[in-house]
Design goal:
Largest sheet: 3 strands, antiparallel
CATH topology: Ribonucleotide Reductase, subunit A
Number of domains: 1
Bound molecules: benzoyl coenzyme A, fe (iii) ion
CATH architecture: Orthogonal Bundle
Number of helices: 11
Oligomer: single chain
Mean pLDDT: 96
Structural class: mainly alpha
Radius of gyration: 23 Å
Distance between the termini: 40 Å
Low-confidence stretches: none
Strand order of the largest sheet: 2-1-7
Number of strands: 7
CATH class: Mainly Alpha
CATH superfamily: Ribonucleotide Reductase, subunit A
Length: 477
Amino acid sequence: MSINYSERIPNNVSLSDDRRLQRALEAWQPGFLQWWREMGPESFQRCDVYLRTATSTDAQGWATFGYVKMPDYRWGIFLAEPEPDRRIPFGEHKGEPVWREVPGQHRGVLRRLIVTQGDTEPASVEQQRHLGKTCPSLYDLRNLFQVNVEEGRHLWAMVYLLHAYFGRDGREEAEGLLQRRSGNADNPRILGAFNEQTPDWLSYFMFAHFTDRDGKYQLASLAESGFDPLARTCRFMLTEEAHHLFVGESGVGRVVSRTCELMRAHNSFEVGEYGGIDLSIIQKYINFHYSVSLDLFGSELSTNAANYFSAGLKGRFKEADRTDDHQLTGSSYSLLKPEHGKIIATEQPALLALNETLRDSYVADCERALARWNKIIKEAQLEFELKLPHRGFRRSIGEFAGVSLTPEGQIISEEEWQRRKSEWIPTQSDREFVASLMKPVTTPGQFASWIAPPLRGINHQSLDFEFVTGLPGVTEH
Ligand code: BYC
Ligand code: FE
Ligand code: FE
């Protein structure tokens, strides 16, 4: 399905056949561009960035690469191709034809899911807007901007659904998505992690690894939706998301790799004085970002989640690969809960435990990536193992909220937590140290002292390719 770029809003949904929708979206577009100029990457709007742009939505080579100024990026509306005769894959309506319009009785919850998803996209751009100024290389700078423009497009994806299917309420919600601001006390973004700061590049790689990965699992569950326009929208978003996860996982891996190199060269666990980041600090950043991201899955026991599933609106990860009845009315799930100072397994209705089921898929994926980082350490013949903390560690949402745990999962007193938390999560001085390393490196082919180069450039370009040109304060060469 090719994308029509001759219209003001690129799309593959025949937007020009629906004049009302086209006008509504064209009316929203200037507000989006204004938001991008105010809240998008600071100081780099006039640079030429080597970006990929979607040209079609089929699996083979949907992307073309070329220099683009970010405000000229062709944000648009791209849905994956429809599946002929698609059926609702789960819940009470399992087996019925999918909905092409919003089922009236589920309008409110569906809108809420779409708004919650949509809200995270601009939030992440806001969180990352200052990072360009301290980029570790042009390669990394380009990747940051690629992720940012695509998160902008993900906002478009949700706004399309709101405008096309939710009438006036949808248009109001679409306005709200441009008005909330990450970290703003009066009008914050909806979910916790999206009001945290992303002050340095180590935080950024952790965010792209752990928090964008929540995005992958949430989008994959919505890609199962019986509301077909939502499913198709999320399917295409997932193809873009893969790059964000690559940036995060390989970014953290490159930091680990550089640290190991410095550890070996100087025969020391402490590499700060050589411009590296100690593995112990990397571990604390993992603890922080993993726990914040686990909260994004919601409470372990959730009637919301049960309702979403029963109604056929939000499925499980890879619903089709599961061999149960896809309805779960009589099934149970063994859930870990803190009770009287201990963590115990309890039998719960599977329908209520769907947030936890999705969290299970996420945790397994994080374990896989962690093993790859540990392999880097092992190959450098160093004795150190990075770990994921217990899933109840430092949680603010769900059964573990308000319970203090060590990373190993031992319940401790609030007082012990206060006394020992500096061992587990980044302290002010850890953050200041990491911040002190954040000096921009903008010579093509050069990388900051604290990160190893990647294995290869983007789109087969060499590492000294000029991935971003026309930087502020730098004359042409
Ligand atoms: N922070 O039954 P519960 C991405 C609220 S990331 C604040 O546990 P439910 C991306 C909840 O709203 C993917 N509040 O929750 C990544 C509820 O409020 P009410 C984003 C929270 O509904 C990087 C109450 O607590 N997509 O794409 O089962 C860069 C009790 O709720 C939080 C989605 O999230 C929190 N962490 O599950 C860019 C998908 N957690 O009813 C992009 C859509 C819960 O008491 N969203 N609450 O007012 C959902 O599916 C669900 O809303 C959630 C929550 C899974 C988030
Ligand atoms: Fe996104
Ligand atoms: Fe993303």
